[in-house]
Task: inverse folding
């Protein structure tokens, strides 16, 4: 009986090999298998390197930017923003407080973004304060000119 079952298996194998619709196992030559294995290993190494780089690119603490934002607030205050542009100065101060909080919570990307916004808001407050001061000076000069013209007109001989 063993002989007959072996011949049946051999006949089935030959039938499957001759049948065009029968699935066939794909065997690669040794060089192709080597290239596929090398490609897979290079892909794995590249993926690992990218993952390590993503973990290693943690943003540094933006201490210099926070110092610059504090200096911008001080410059705006010296320019008179507390009296002449209080809304803008208060916005800058509130954002500075949020940036400091983000810094203590080690949310460095948020702290960096907020410190950049503080610098812009503080510069706006400073510019508004200087502009308001210049407008006041121009108004005073116009008034002085008007008074001088009146005085000239009054004292001029007719």
Result:
């Amino acid at each position: 009986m063993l002989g007959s079952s072996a011949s049946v298996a051999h006949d089935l194998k030959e039938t499957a090999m001759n049948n065009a619709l029968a699935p066939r196992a794909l065997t690669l030559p040794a060089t192709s298998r080597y290239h596929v294995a090398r490609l897979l290993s290079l892909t794995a190494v590249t993926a690992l390197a990218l993952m390590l780089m993503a973990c290693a690119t943690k943003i540094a603490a933006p201490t210099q930017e926070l110092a610059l934002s504090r200096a911008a607030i001080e410059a705006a205050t010296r320019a008179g923003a507390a009296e002449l542009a209080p809304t803008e100065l208060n916005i800058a101060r509130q954002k500075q407080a949020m940036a400091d909080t983000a810094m203590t919570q080690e949310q460095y990307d948020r702290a960096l973004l907020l410190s950049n916004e503080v610098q812009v808001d503080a510069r706006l407050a400073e510019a508004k304060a200087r502009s308001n001061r210049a407008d006041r000076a121009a108004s005073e000069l116009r008034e002085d000119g008007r008074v001088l013209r009146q005085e000239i007109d009054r004292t001029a001989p007719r």
User: Anything to note?
Assistant: The longest helix spans residues 108-155. The mean pLDDT is 81. The chain has six helices and no strands.
